[in-house]
């Protein structure tokens, strides 16, 4: 499928999706969000993809929702048109692991998009922010909920109410990102991590992702029960037999997704 606002490359079972609107610092317009949702759904269905890396350019992962596109909208248009709603739901419904590789600005919707991925690896030049307050609005695709879960109420309030940016060191310290790497090595590092993930049993990967996500959506008791049942269910797979046999025989496992 040909896209105009993103590029997709697949190699070694990893799909590298790049946001590609350099003229607008990868601002998220309806076309880009729709294309991204389509590319992620396609990657989910593609047997040649086992892990996905989502990135932007060195200057910007994404500088937010497209202000030019949004500026003239009325409440009725935003509400009845469900601005980004359905497409963003499709993005967050991706079942395979998605790593956000963030360099430069991840602001507003860009920060929200990165947080909607499974984890964030960022470059040392990364800047995260929810500056919507400066535009007379607020976050609208998960920022108030996800940032608060990542960094806690105090920092989340600080970010949303002042619109200030958080640099890579603070983002790592606060638990927003999992690793910080030099900007020049960001994509290579993210791809290396994705390739490692791609070697695992896909059944176990999907189950582990589902289980971690439940931590945000249910009570501890329900989450623990759900985790236990998924763990036990994995003993019905050949990959569990192979993984444990390989450990005992001191060799690398050969997972077959069965
Ligand atoms: N939308 C549209 N165009 C943008 C955006 C954006 N978010 N950000 C940058 N651009 C454009 C600029 O207009 C400029 O275009 P042009 O050359 O045609 O004037 C080009 O990108 C380069 O930008 P700058 O010249 O401003 O570059 P600087 O290096 O000087 O500054 C900044 C970089 C600091 C990132 C600056 O561009 C900036 O502040 N951008 C806006 C950041 C922002 O406010 N983001 C939040 C947007 S609102 C949002 O994301 C809401 C999400 C929820 C939506 C949910 C709907 C339901």
From TrEMBL:
It comes from the Bacteria. It is an enzyme of class 4 (lyase). GO terms for biological process: fatty acid beta-oxidation. Keywords: Fatty acid metabolism, Lipid metabolism, Lyase. The keyword Lipid metabolism applies. It catalyses: a 4-saturated-(3S)-3-hydroxyacyl-CoA = a (3E)-enoyl-CoA + H2O; a (3S)-3-hydroxyacyl-CoA = a (2E)-enoyl-CoA + H2O. GO terms for molecular function: enoyl-CoA hydratase activity. The keyword Lyase applies. Its EC number is 4.2.1.17. Could possibly oxidize fatty acids using specific components. Belongs to the enoyl-CoA hydratase/isomerase family. PANTHER family: ENOYL-COA HYDRATASE, MITOCHONDRIAL (PTHR11941:SF54), ENOYL-COA HYDRATASE-RELATED (PTHR11941). This is enoyl-CoA hydratase.
